[in-house]
Amino acid sequence: AQKITQTQPGMFVQEKEAVTLDCTYDTSDPSYGLFWYKQPSSGEMIFLIYQGSYDQQNATEGRYSLNFQKARKSANLVISASQLGDSAMYFCAMREGISSGSARQLTFGSGTQLTVLP
Amino acid sequence: DSGVTQTPKHLITATGQRVTLRCSPRSGDLSVYWYQQSLDQGLQFLIQYYNGEERAKGNILERFSAQQFPDLHSELNLSSLELGDSALYFCASSVAAGQFAGELFFGEGSRLTVL
Q1: Which residue of A has its CA nearest to B32?
Q2: What is the mean pLDDT of residues A91-100?
Q3: Are A44 and A36 in contact (CB under 8 A)?
Q4: pLDDT over 90 at A115, yes or no
Q5: Nearest Cα residue in chain B from A89
Q6: Chain B residues whose beta carbon lies within 8 Å of the beta carbon of residue A103
Q7: Runs of H (alpha helix) within chain A
Q8: Residue A68: which of A47, A87, A94 has the closest Cα?
Q9: Which has the minimum average pLDDT: A12-21, A48-57, A58-67, B64-73?
């Protein structure tokens, strides 16, 4: 079974508008972290935002916020006021076993290609 | 700049050959991860090292091997290369393996093309 599912292969958004990128996950581990990375066409992986499974509040980092719905096992990324430079591939990822002292590697979803239109 | 350095950035070679990809983690990071990104497989975890020892293994082929040296740099060796090995290979590092240390910091990747 897929641990991380991103159902939107591609998304378009108008500049200055907000966009939500979907991510659902599957784990039986009570202690995990959820991450979003951005990969522009140049190829590097850029960390955007993190949400821990025990965090009470949704994470925010500037124009990025994470809509964390634990019961639904979803961790959607919201980008507000989109900019042309936001055009990139976005990956959702999960890291299990955090509080057990055996945090494992990141498992990635298949990604969503976001295109911001002028 | 993530602080993780990967060399070479680009590599073109022929089937059947062997290549070595090198990674220097961020200063102070003990854990190194290798990922393969191909068009059809997405980002696949290959292997993790922590302070010189193998910690976790993912979808790494037997033709591939890795190691982490005492100075913490790591090398990924790919042998008997096939066309399907063409991909972007990422190295990432984090402070520790057992403790939650936040995000992984990725290098810029080594793009391997097998002809």
Answers
A1: A105
A2: 82
A3: no
A4: yes
A5: B42
A6: 96-101
A7: none
A8: A94
A9: A48-57
Tens digit of each residue's pLDDT, chain B (115 residues): 889 999 999 999 999 999 999 999 999 888 899 999 998 778 999 999 988 999 889 989 999 999 999 999 999 999 999 999 999 999 999 876 554 556 789 999 999 999 9
Per-residue pLDDT at A2 exceeds 80? no
- The whole-angstrom separation of Cα B96 and Cα B94 is 6
Angle at B27 between CA B22 and CA B32, to 5 degrees: 45
Question: b vs e for A54-85, b when ≥16 Cβ sit within 10 Å of the residue's Cβ?
Answer: eeeeebeeeebbbbbeeeeebbbbbbeebeee
How far apart (Å, rounded) are the C-alpha atoms in residues A51 and A28?
A: 17
What number of C-beta contacts closer than 8 Å exist between A and B? 58
CB atoms within 10 A of CB A2: 11
A19 CB-near residues (< 8 Å, 6+ apart): A11, A13, A78, A79, A82, A114
The span from the CA of A90 to the CA of A45, in Å, is: 9
Is the Cβ pair B99, A103 closer than 8 Å?
yes
CA angle centred on B85, ends B80 and B89, rounded to 5°: 115
| B43 contacts in chain A (CB < 8 Å) | 91, 108, 111
What are the helix and strand counts (H, E) for chain A? 0, 12
